[in-house]
Amino acid sequence: RKEVEQDPGPFNVPEGATVAFNCTYSNSASQSFFWYRQDCRKEPKLLMSVYSSGNEDGRFTAQLNRASQYISLLIRDSKLSDSATYLCVVILAHISGNTPLVFGKGTRLSVIA
Amino acid sequence: EAGVAQSPRYKIIEKRQSVAFWCNPISGHATLYWYQQILGQGPKLLIQFQNNGVVDDSQLPKDRFSAERLKGVDSTLKIQPAKLEDSAVYLCASSLADVSSGNTIYFGEGSWLTVV
Fold first, then answer.
1. What one-character-per-residue DSSP string does chain A give?
2. Chain B nearest-CA residue for A93
3. Is A101's CB within 8 Å of B45's CB?
4. C-beta separation of A16 from A77 below 8 A
């Protein structure tokens, strides 16, 4: 089982739609969770952190379910500018003390006019 | 504030040739990372430095890849000899300290490598 798994998509949605992305992780000792956004031929950029209590930033809501080892990202009122690949990122706990970022393959979103 | 700088942006080489990528992290960032991102996949960590020491190089193919950060600032990643499967974007990133402490990681624009 891969450490971080995402539905690769693509998700093609009309402007104004609500879309949800899911991500599962295999290591129950994982410490921290993030969503990154990557535009075509650009570098990944932090979109938001994911907390156990859930967090919201404008049209974006991220949630974490530790029991199910599941992370979600909800985008409301989709804009054309939301078109990108959304990467689920997990910080694993390492015995050595190092805590690398592990990326999922990403879910591609295309918002259509 | 200047971001993570990488060069060259694009490189095309033949298999079995060598290539080197350079990275200048954000000023003051102690932690530096090299990631490999193959088309259609997420970035995969190759090596992580803390100042000039290697923290994690468990996924670096050491028979052909090498990296150094001699003075704890700039870093170079070298591939010799290159294989077709090395075609990817090589992303350098930096953070103030280890990300487990809540530090954000910032990526450079990447160096695009095509091996033909």
1. --SEEE----EEEETT--EEEEEEES-TT--EEEEEEE-TTS-EEEEEEE-TT-EEETTEEEEEETTTTEEEEEE-S--GGG-EEEEEEEEPP-TTS---EEE---EEEEEE-
2. B100
3. yes
4. yes
Angle, alpha carbons B22-B24-B26 (nearest 5°): 155
**What pLDDT tens digit does each residue of chain A (113 aa) get?**
678 999 888 999 999 999 999 999 998 888 889 999 999 999 999 999 998 888 999 999 999 999 999 999 999 999 999 999 999 999 876 555 566 789 999 999 999 99
Q: How far does the CA of residue A78 sit from the closest CA of chain B (Å)?
A: 23
Q: Which residues contact A36 (CB under 8 A, 6 or more apart)?
A: A44, A45, A46, A47, A86, A87, A89, A103
Q: In Å, how far is A35's CA from the nearest CA of chain B?
A: 12
Give the other-Cβ count within 10 Å of B56's Cβ: 18
Spatial CA neighbour of A63 closest among A20, A9, A18, A14: A20
Which of A101, A102, A105, A107 to mutate to probe the B interface, most B CBs <10 Å?
A101
Question: Could you say which DSSP state residue B70 is in?
Answer: T
